[in-house]
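Data availability (excerpt). All sequences and predicted token strings are deposited with the supplementary files. A representative entry, rRNA maturation RNase YbeY, is shown inline so that the format can be inspected without opening the archive.
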Amino acid sequence: MQELNLRHLGRDWTTDVLSFSLGGKDIVKDIVVGDVYVGFEQARHQAKELGIELDEELARLAIHGTLHVLG
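Structure token line:
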């Protein structure tokens, strides 16, 4: 995740989720609208800190990234 963050956004640190929109403004017509990357180790760490199950944190991050892709 840190390497992707640096390569694509110029940020030299790890993150829990990265999202990249592939479409233009008319995302309804696009079949694939973007990519979402979830940092598993960061998600595990955050789940532990928040006192929640890992699958709940992974779902939260997937939703968070998807919302970024959609604008």
